[in-house]
Amino acid sequence: MSSKYPFAIGVTRLRKEPAWVMNFDLSGAIADLKVASSYVMDDQLIDVAGTAEWVHGGILITGKISTQWEGECRRCLGPTSGSLQISFRELYERVEPGGELAGEGDTYPYSGDIIDVGEMVKDQVLLELPLAPLCKDECKGLCVSCGSDQNLGDCGCVETEIDPRWQALDILVDKDR
Ligand SMILES: [Zn+2]
Ligand SMILES: [Zn+2]
Question: How far is 91 from 112, CA to CA, in rounded Å?
């Protein structure tokens, strides 16, 4: 069942027992994961599994994000899809509720006893979504003349295409007129 904070990790015990390494396995959906030509469906589950451990300076969260994306082939504009497997390792620094991180480091803030890794998961997926996906490596794309999908067969435009040498002659003919 969907929860409002599917990526929240309770770290109370972790802060009390610094030597403990906690395993987590979360799953949820995130809306608006979209770049130019690919996106993760709003109801697509994103799996996040890994470990949380107390380290000097905060809580280190290490793990893997897995999900599926959909998009539009950059050559034929047809539907295309794929999967993402992203490894991550991020440090969460504790701040006062509503507080900000002091430095500009590459860390994420958390307050209280809960770390919500949702924002981090969102950042990671947005970085990994393909900007120019292909439906297949050998996609032939669309015909520049008639716009038909070349993967479905030859549209015949190649034969009617004007040879550039003849095109030059046409210009000469025009001049003579
Ligand atoms: Zn294609
Ligand atoms: Zn054509």
Answer: 16
